[in-house]
Structures are given as structure tokens and as C-alpha cells.
Design goal:
Layout (H helix, E strand, L loop, with lengths): L3 E4 L2 E4 L4 E7 L7 E8 L6 E6 L5 E3 L7 E6 L4 E6 L8 E9 L17 E2 L3 E6 L1
Parallel strand pairs: 2-11
Antiparallel strand pairs: 1-3, 3-8, 4-5, 4-9, 5-6, 7-8, 9-10, 9-11
């Protein structure tokens, strides 16, 4: 069982930055793919990006070059650094985890239905 808890959401003006954190209840090194998703009002949940135990990352085109995913395995914490934020980044952000097969390589398909472990979400609001 993996428990996830996000923090760090808030309100920011366009062009600003936020860093989200996700504390993981157990070490996910080598066995799990960690990801960030977001869901805007009236829209489906979409994958933002993911990171594996080799620190390989992949990102959605909409955030590439602006968002950075990292992890601190010693602290069992996943991060999402969000820069140059836009109003269209407004959403509830979730961290998620699923088991990863050893042969998987990025880019991973970030389908929400494949992820069995989720945090409660944290709201990010970007004003223009």
C-alpha cells in the first residue's frame, strides 16, 4: 500500500512559480513510476509528467520547458516545480503512483486508469 499526500498549492499570478510536494508513505525506488496529474473544472484528468527510479522524466507538451519533476528518495518526496505559470494551468494537481516494469522506458503513457495510488489533490489557481 502506498499513501500519497500533496501540499504546496495556492494562488499565483501568471508568470509566477509554485512548487508542489508529495510525501510518499514508503520507498518507491526501483518499483514504482511516480507521476503528476491535473484536473481542471469540466475537463478530464490529464498527465502532467512522470519520473522513474533512474530519474528519467517525461512531460506533457503543454508543460514541457516550464515544469520540472524531481524526487528525494531519502525523504520519500516527489516534487513538481512549476514556472512561468499560465491561467490554463489552473487545476487540482494530484500525485500518483503505479508499479513499473523493469523494461519500461519514457515516455510512459500517462493514463489515469493505470495508476492505483493517488493523493487527495491540491488546488493551483493562476490569475491573469
Amino acid at each position: 500500500q502506498v499513501r500519497l499526500a500533496e501540499s504546496g498549492g495556492g494562488s499565483v499570478q501568471a508568470g509566477g512559480s509554485l512548487r508542489l510536494s508529495c510525501i510518499v508513505s514508503k520507498s518507491t525506488a526501483n518499483t514504482y513510476l511516480m507521476a503528476w496529474f491535473r484536473q481542471a473544472p469540466g475537463k478530464e484528468r490529464e498527465g502532467v509528467g512522470a519520473i522513474d527510479s533512474d530519474t528519467s522524466t517525461s512531460y506533457a507538451d503543454s508543460v514541457k520547458g516550464r515544469f520540472i519533476i524531481s524526487q528525494d528518495n531519502d525523504r520519500n518526496t516527489l516534487y513538481l516545480q512549476m514556472n512561468s505559470l499560465k491561467p490554463e494551468d489552473t487545476a487540482i494537481y494530484y500525485c500518483a503512483a503505479r508499479r513499473r516494469s523493469w523494461y519500461e522506458r519514457p515516455p510512459w503513457g500517462l493514463r489515469s486508469g493505470d495508476f492505483g495510488y493517488w493523493g487527495q489533490g491540491t488546488q493551483v489557481t493562476v490569475s491573469s
